Amino acid sequence: MLVVAAALIDTNNAILIQQCPKHKPLAGLWEFPGGKVEAGECCRVALCRELAEELGIRVEPGSLEEFSFVTGVTNDGKPLVLLLYCCRVWRGEVSAMDADALAWVPADQLTNYPLAPLDVPLAERLALLFR
């Protein structure tokens, strides 16, 4: 399974994370917004779609900068690749359309939140980027 996520970075270099809703497998944990890439869909286009669905914002595919990736397995044991993109430009007001809460967090404080397991190494890499 291919999953894409974004590290939205504001003008103060804070990064947006969202708290997984109670009805999802990672309920209560924090994650970078994003989701699954559909069959035949480009990764950047998929992430733009997911950000519109989850946060109500518009992002152009060219505004997404490849940052890092991690691999793991799904709950049913299937291989998973998570691609993280950085994004500093979007249109619209960020709102929690599919999350229990949102937080703008300095990169060096991301790991103070209970993050989804695959997001932990990505958060650690982001902290190094903003040292």
Can you tell me about this structure?
The chain has 131 residues and is an alpha+beta fold. It has a single domain (2-129), classed as Nucleoside Triphosphate Pyrophosphohydrolase (Alpha-Beta Complex), CATH 3.90.79. It contains two helices and seven strands, in the order ββββαβββα. It has helices spanning 43-55, 119-129, and strands spanning 2-8, 14-19, 30-31, 34-36, 64-73, 79-87, 101-106. The protein has a four-stranded mixed β-sheet with strand order 4-1-6-5, sandwiched between helices. A hairpin with a 5-residue loop joins strand 5 and strand 6. 32% of the residues are buried. The mean pLDDT is 96.
List the helices and strands and how they pair.
Layout: E1 2-8, E2 14-19, E3 30-31, E4 34-36, H1 43-55, E5 64-73, E6 79-87, E7 101-106, H2 119-129
Parallel strand pairs: 1-6
Antiparallel strand pairs: 1-4, 2-3, 2-7, 5-6
- How big a fraction of the residues is strand? 25-35%
The largest pleated sheet is described as: 4 strands, mixed
The CATH superfamily is known as Nucleoside Triphosphate Pyrophosphohydrolase
Q: State the secondary-structure class.
A: alpha+beta
Number of beta strands: 7
CATH architecture: Alpha-Beta Complex
CATH topology annotation = Nucleoside Triphosphate Pyrophosphohydrolase
Order of helices and strands: EEEEHEEEH
Low-confidence sequence ranges: none
The separation of the N and C termini measures: 32 Å
| Total individual domains | 1
CATH class: Alpha Beta
- From the spread of the alpha carbons, the general shape counts as globular
Mean pLDDT: 96
Number of helices: 2
Helical residue percent band: 10-25%
Rg of Cα set: 14 Å
The main sheet orders its strands as 4-1-6-5
